């Protein structure tokens, strides 16, 4: 299996605060890979490292045979043209119509004539079921529809990779299912590689080929969704089953309440 992205022995910190430690991850071509874990576990940081927004402190991110942190700015821009990004809340331009939002990357990065851009935009909107909403503004469509518009924009330049940052956040169950199915279908039909950062276990497990679990900046488990559901790893069990008790505590670590209040605990 050929990997589009390989992450090796990767470490990253913000100042003195370590975020990622010793990551080793593979993202095969044509697959949907989910990166899961609690808030603050470093999931979105992985996406930023792949896109070259930040550089690792040690280790490497290899995208299509190139080490990202060694690229020049022109090389980075060329690489990013082959990437699509679906931001957590869509990040649509509110003053532009649905059509203009999807047309934006085509106008920004190509010299295509307007009649061809029009046809391409309508095809992308057709793929997400929103061709007849082309002239509406983002405020005039539902949250689920706005997420689909953002997905149409993400595939406008026919990328080889799409990264999804919490694509199911804030969606109702129907919109969540529609979005999940679109991610899987577009991945297969267009021959994409998809990286899915999400907290949503059920939808992610339905469409992912492989799952990495991060906790405190490290990979604590990885495998197929079936393997993860059957995992006896305490962290995976707590996350998958939404259990209150487990390796992730309810109380932030530190002194006891009795110590803070200056109380003696009687034996």
Can I get a quick summary?
Helices cover 36% and strands 24% of the residues.
What does this structure look like?
The model has no long low-confidence stretch (mean pLDDT 85). It contains 10 helices and 10 strands. The longest helix is centred in the last third of the chain and has 18 residues, at 173-190. Strand 9 (210-215) and strand 10 form a beta hairpin. It is of the alpha/beta class and 267 residues long. The strands form 2 sheets. The protein has a 6-stranded mixed sheet with strand order 6-7-8-3-9-10, with helices on both faces. The chain has helices at 43-50, 73-80, 98-109, 114-127, 143-154, 173-190, 201-207, 225-230, 234-240, 257-261; strands spanning 3-14, 17-28, 32-37, 58-63, 66-67, 83-86, 161-165, 193-197, 210-215, 218-223. It is globular, with a radius of gyration of 21 Å.
Sheet with the most strands, sense and barrel status: 6 strands, mixed
Low-confidence stretches: none
Q: Overall mean pLDDT score?
A: 85
> Tally the helices: what do you get?
10
Write the H/E string, N to C: EEEHEEHEHHHEHEHEEHHH
- Counted beta strands: 10
Q: Given the C-alpha coordinates, what overall shape results? A: globular
End-to-end separation in angstroms reads 61 Å
- Label the structural class: alpha/beta
Strand order of the largest sheet: 6-7-8-3-9-10
Helix content: 25-40%
**Radius of gyration, taken over Cα atoms and rounded to an integer in Å:** 21 Å
Strand residue content: 15-25%
